[in-house]
Amino acid sequence: MKKQNDGELPAALVELLEAIIDRELATRLTDVLTAAGRCIERLAGINLVALEPADADDGSADLALWEKMAPTVGEMVVAVNELCTVVDECLPTTGNRESLFGREGSDQRAEYEATAVFRSISPLIKKEVGEVGSLMRRPEMLSSPWGLLSELQRLRAQIRARVSDGVYLLAAALGAVSRDEVVPGYGQEVLRALSFRATETALRRTAQQRLEAAPPSAGDALARNIEEDFAVLGSMPAWRHVKIDTKRAMLRLRAQLKAASTSGATAEEVGALVRPMLELLGATSFELSRAVLISHDRDARNLSLRRAEQAELHLSLETGAAGWALEAAFDAAQPLRGVDEVVDELLRQAAKSNVAELEAQELMPLTAELASALSRLDL
Questions:
Q1: How many degrees, rounded to 5, is the angle at CA 99 between CA 95 and CA 102?
Q2: CB atoms < 10 A from the CB of 155, how many?
Q3: pLDDT tens-digit profile of 24-75?
Q4: Amino acid 360: pLDDT
Q5: How far is CA 7 from CA 22, 171, 241, in A?
Q6: At 10, is the secondary structure helix, strand, or coil?
Q7: 86 with 35: CB under 8 angstroms?
């Protein structure tokens, strides 16, 4: 998946803009979308991870904290102000309301919707970036790097989501497109979320198995192994987008596990430490799925279901190709890892056997189970 350079628009968005007959309008919309794309990418590129403390506890009031974080705050302010300036210049408020009734994909509709959308977004993101600046005047933030980072993360995500929505709505006024085709950085966001969900699900399963299998007296080794598992998860690129409160809780838990690994803790005591975090990680994965992956998951589910239906038809016609079709169904379902335990178990079963070589009597129940599990997904 190709990553856009700073200011570069996705190919599908460029095609829509090139199809606009009114070239003066096309130029204005290109300027707005380029500024919006630059804003999205600048916000995504702000590295809050580099500002995260090494300790889960807050310190005392320290002006040096703001000196460290001021460049990040400045980047957010500049990114938003530049976009709002371009919107003011390229989308004047005087528009023809009759253009609302223009046909789908028309220049008139595109201009009306672009103006309506970005004129609505601009005051909202100006207000939110103003909140970023006001953080500097809140004394309680001077002694709370974690609280400050949490606010910065929330506002950055909120602003980025609004601008991304604006890009998508403007593009949708020009033609039938999906978010991943037109929103800069959206494809990479999906890949990171998929990677996190698959890894987090595997980690939770491994941790649960460790907890269930550990002898009562093996708490030291159990704590050490699970802490190492959590360290791997925290090093993933997608971890940077996990909520700051969850990161802080993980840092605190890892410190507790390191202490438990040398204190003679029992397996039951280690389990009491770990289980709340496993639940929190599951909730985090669910939130990512709903916020970023819902369209992707529906597409993957629908494709896998179509392949499963093909397998059922091959079985009924006795063509001998049912195994190939079902293998394709399982391949299509791979991106759904972590969505549902039943689907995950079926994927694990398929990975242990050569599905394409199975006999009809084995393919029939497996096909039915996969189709049933996919149909029950709440997407």
A1: 160
A2: 21
A3: 999 999 999 999 999 998 888 888 887 788 788 765 555 666 677 778 778 8
A4: 92
A5: 22, 16, 23
A6: coil
A7: yes
Q: In the chain, which stretches have pLDDT less than 70?
A: 1-7, 58-66, 94-106, 136, 140-142
- Please give the pLDDT value at position 253: 95
The DSSP letter of residue 236 is: S
DSSP H/E element including 77: helix 64-90
The tokens of 297 are what?
């998951």
Neighbours of 105 (CB within 10 A): 15
3-state secondary structure of 264: coil
Please check whether residue 154 is in contact with residue 48, taking contact to mean a CB–CB distance below 8 angstroms: no
What is the rounded distance in angstroms from the CA atom of residue 325 to the CA atom of residue 306?
9
| CB of 258 closer than 8 Å to CB of 230 | no
Whether the model clears a pTM of 0.90, i.e. scores above it, the answer is no
Q: Sign of dihedral through CA atoms 287, 288, 292, 297?
A: negative
Phi-psi region of 20 (alpha: psi -120 to 50; beta: other; left: phi over 0): beta
Domain boundaries, the chain: 11-184, 189-292, 294-375
Q: Which residue has the tokens 């799925």?
A: 289
What is the pLDDT, as a whole number, of residue 97?
44
Structural tokens at position 81: 């102000």
**DSSP summary character for residue 95:** -
DSSP-derived letter for residue 56 is S
The position carrying tokens 């700073």 is 6
338 contacts 285 by C-beta, under 8 angstroms: yes
Residue of 34, 25, 46, 33 whose CA lies nearest to 106: 25
SS3 (DSSP) at 23 = helix
Tell me the DSSP string of 283-338: HHHHHHIIIIIHHHHHHHHHHHHHHHHHHHHHHHHT-S-HHHHHHHHHHHHGGGTT
Encode burial over 314-346: b for 16+ CB neighbours within 10 A, e otherwise.
bbeeeeeebbbbbbbbbebbebbbbbbeebbeb
The pLDDT of residue 252:
94
Tell how far CA 302 is from the center of its chain.
Answer: 20
**Residue 232: Cβ within 10 Å count:** 11
